[in-house]
Design a protein that fits this description.
heterodimer; A: TATA-Binding Protein; 3 domains; 7-stranded antiparallel sheet; B: mainly alpha; flat
């Protein structure tokens, strides 16, 4: 409000604001604003969609990152400004639905609207003269229109009829269901949980918080609610296209093993494929990825076995060139760490650099760089098992002081210089990446969404129509006027009027028979 | 026939369809060029409504018809339409043969989606030619098909089996619905574009200067109505494809029904913009030209989702196959 204008009383202002917010124009602007607001999230990496991409972005753009962070651009869809737009839109929606429902209910109970004085002004009208009495004509018209499912009302020489009431009902159903969908999604995100875990062949998983590699849950979720199932992964199958132009493309993935729904139950076999999750007690287990876990053993300078097991290497490209880290904190005289790559089908390129030519493990090679010193595990700070913190580590060097690179095939072993120990590549297993999630109540948005489409189709296809017939006696004859109004554009009204007029005129014959 | 034979046949049919679409487009352009010299045909009155003694006043805008007599412009228009029918049949053959070659529904990558989407767009156009006489969309539809088919060859991949993520019957429901909606959006965008041209001309051209091809087309109001009807068909189909079938499949494949993956974001944006279009047509100050522009923006977001996000974006919907 400008300074000169008289201040509106608060109530009046609120009423004005409410009317503005719930107007169609505002709803339309908010709708378009929502579309625009959704755009940045598809270009800027989102921490909930791809945390790795966010980390890469942060490394590459150190100056932009704090600005983006402050603007919530790494989590656009939960940012205050995005929420503001859709909350306003929702209020506007509700503020539109409620009064329109009231208007609709009144119109539904009311008689069809009265006939306009002058039919010629309507988009389609006709008139004719007949010998039939007024009541007879109106009776015939009532019959014809009722057969066409019009609601008909006759009084005082005039017939009024209307149909297509369900159009507005569909419209209201659609918009109400949208509100239900939004509420359902919001509530669902409060009570659900989702987590990711990597399980290697021959190993197991039990559904407790500590076993997850990553886990997120809604605000109302309680970790003690996790269903107490456990599963054992026996084997993972991964098939790839062997020939043709799409050689190497993934063709079939499946993970199989046994699960027990609760401790003490008998194990039940399972097979999980992409698109075919395993469901236990409302929780679904999805196969979302797989990869290789070389089995390695590390012996330290004293010859003691300080590490032995399968180490998942995370695939980085379509040929499953994978990266991973091995940590042996118990090694003496110094802790040992390895960082490197795994190539399922290693081929040495023209430049002498090995790369993976095919995603299946036809010629597996493990390439490692070795480090000694302090792995940084003792200061209590949590560390990713996939990252080697090199701050207090010294890299082993080989010939001419270059970093030492160990290339191992299954069965190979290599000694570290200076008697620090040995590492051997004992065998190869595969791992499955499972996503485990429960989204209770997701049938609410589903049912509401299906109803919304039903309402949408009703509101877009049903045409509300009105028909009026007026008959009066003039010079001993009956003058009949017919008019029709379609509240949606595009109907062939002329034809409809003609059909009605035609049916009223052909009804002349029964009258003659009676007389 | 072996799958390889079907694959070869498919490629030949799609290439032939491209050429025939190009010829059809040329015919329509020539129709337009020759039509420039022709006077606007006097609007042909609608057939009499009521026989006998009835008097019917018909106030709905009469549709101008092409001038009587087979002039060169008409002939070219009919040739363009015939070529479009031929191209449609070739494309239908190409898409079907592709399915037989790959032994699955041919909707597994960008090339396949583009050919199927254009098949739908041409099909919708031809149906509308039959029921609503929309030959005036011929130049824009054939031109669009030539351009997109030409570009589709850039993302061509040989027929082959699907990646595991697509092993689901939801592929049939989700992708076919998206292709149907996309094809209809293309026709709707074409109608909105011609509407914008025509309504501008109606505002700027005096009545006696109205000669040429454009003035033989229906009124801009009729075009707007047609565009609305096509969008009113496409919008619920898109709603089903993007906001019902997509989330259900995502729940099965990825364990969440909505995750703001770039493809999902843009599908949502397209939905919101078209919802805006439908509301704009019922809002004072927005109906008409502004609404039509929104329809074009909606189609642009759809195309960007298909091309931009597939080729340059990242995310879970990386099925371009290129």
């Amino acid at each position: 409000m400008s300074a000169g204008a008289p201040a509106l009383p608060a109530r009046q202002f609120l009423r004005w604001a409410w009317r503005q917010l719930t107007s169609m124009r505002t709803a339309l602007l908010l709708l378009l604003l929502l579309a625009v607001a959704a755009v940045p999230g598809s270009f800027i990496p989102q921490s909930k969609v791809d945390p790795l991409a966010v980390a890469t972005f942060t490394d590459r753009h150190p100056t932009l990152t704090p600005v983006f962070d402050r603007l919530g651009l790494f989590s656009v869809y939960s940012s205050p400004w995005f929420s503001a737009v859709y909350l306003l839109l929702m209020i506007s929606l509700i503020g539109c639905i409620i009064p329109r429902t009231a208007v609709y209910l009144r119109a539904f109970q009311a008689r069809p609207p009265p006939a306009p004085r002058n039919f010629d002004r309507l988009p389609a009208s006709a008139s004719f003269v007949t010998d039939r009495p007024v009541a007879d004509i109106l009776g015939s018209a009532r019959q014809v229109l009722q057969a066409e499912r019009y609601r008909v009302d006759v009084d005082d020489g005039t017939l009024r009829a209307q149909k297509g009431y369900l159009r507005e009902a569909g419209n209201l159903l659609f918009h109400s269901c949208l509100v239900v969908v939004l509420i359902g999604v919001a509530v669902g995100s409060l009570v659900g949980y989702t987590g990711g875990v990597i399980v290697t062949e021959g190993e197991g998983f039990s559904n407790t918080l500590t076993q997850y590699d990553e886990f997120s849950a809604g605000g109302l979720f309680d970790a003690t609610d996790l269903p107490p199932f456990s599963l054992q992964l026996d084997s993972l199958r991964a098939d790839f296209q062997l020939d043709g132009p799409q050689r190497g493309a993934p063709r079939f993935f499946s993970a199989s093993g046994d699960y027990t729904a609760r401790p003490g139950d008998d194990p039940t076999p399972f097979e999980i494929q992409v698109n075919y999750p395993l469901k236990i007690d409302g929780t679904s287990i999805f196969l979302v990825g797989q990869g290789y876990a070389p089995v390695v053993s590390v012996r330290d300078g004293d010859g003691d076995l300080v590490y032995s097991g399968a180490v998942p290497f995370l695939p980085a490209d379509a040929s499953y060139t994978s990266n991973g880290v091995i940590k042996a904190p118990d090694a003496e005289p110094a802790q040992l760490g390895f960082e490197g790559f795994f190539l399922p089908t290693a081929v040495v390129g023209a430049d002498g650099v090995p790369f993976s030519a095919f995603p299946a493990a036809a010629e597996p090679v493990l390439g490692l760089f070795a480090f000694r010193g302090d792995l940084g595990l003792d200061d209590g700070r949590p560390q990713s098992v996939y990252v080697l913190v090199r701050d207090r580590l010294r890299q082993f060097t080989g010939d001419e002081g270059k970093p030492l690179r160990l290339l191992l095939q299954p069965g190979d072993s290599a000694s570290l210089p200076g008697g620090y120990g040995t590492i051997s590549f004992d065998g190869l297993r595969q791992f499955a990446k499972f996503q485990i999630s429960a989204s209770p109540g997701n049938s609410v948005p589903l049912v509401a969404g299906v109803l919304a489409i039903a309402g949408l189709v009703m509101s877009l296809t049903i045409r509300p129509r009105r028909v009026w017939v007026r008959a009066r006696v003039e010079d001993g004859q009956t003058v009949v006027g017919v008019a029709r109004l379609d509240r949606m554009s595009g109907a062939d009204l002329g034809n409809d009027v003609a059909t009605l007029v035609g049916s009223l005129q052909t009804d002349d014959k029964p009258r003659q028979r009676i007389s | 026939m072996s799958t390889q034979d079907w694959a070869t046949l498919s490629n030949q049919a799609v290439a032939a369809a491209t050429v025939v679409f190009a010829l059809g487009c040329l015919a329509h352009l020539a129709e337009w060029a020759f039509g420039r010299r022709v006077d606007a045909a006097a609007p042909v009155p609608e057939p009499a409504m009521v026989a006998a003694d009835g008097v019917v006043t018909q106030r709905s805008p009469a549709t101008p018809r092409p001038a009587a007599g087979p002039d060169r412009s008409d002939l070219l228009g009919r040739a363009g339409l015939s070529l479009t029918v031929l191209a449609f049949l070739l494309l239908l053959g190409g898409v079907s043969a592709r399915g037989l070659a790959a032994q699955r529904v041919p909707w597994g990558n960008m090339y396949e989606f583009a050919t199927t989407g254009l098949l739908v767009a041409t099909g919708v156009y031809l149906v509308l030619v039959r029921v609503a006489g929309v030959q005036w969309l011929g130049p824009i539809i054939t031109g669009f098909c030539v351009v997109v088919l030409g570009l589709a060859f850039l993302v061509y991949v040989p027929a082959g089996p699907l990646v595991p993520a697509l092993h689901s019957y939801w592929l049939v429901l989700h992708v076919s619905a998206a292709a149907i909606a996309g094809g209809a959006f293309a026709v709707g965008a074409g109608a909105s574009a011609v509407y914008l041209v025509k309504s501008r001309a109606e505002q700027r051209t005096s009545l006696d200067a109205r000669r040429g091809y454009l003035w033989r087309l229906p009124s801009s109001a009729a075009m707007d109505r047609l565009a609305y009807r096509v969008h009113a068909f496409a919008f619920p189909v898109w709603t089903f494809a993007a906001l019902i079938a997509g989330p259900i499949w995502a729940q099965y494949a990825w364990g969440r029904y909505w995750g703001w993956d770039p493809k999902e974001v843009w599908a949502f944006i397209t939905w919101v913009v078209y919802a805006g279009y439908l509301h704009a047509r019922a809002t004072a100050g927005w109906r008409g030209r502004t609404a039509a522009m929104l329809a074009l923006v909606g189609f642009a977001t759809f195309l960007f989702n298909f091309v931009g996000i597939n080729l340059f974006g990242s995310g879970l919907h990386s099925y371009a196959g290129v």
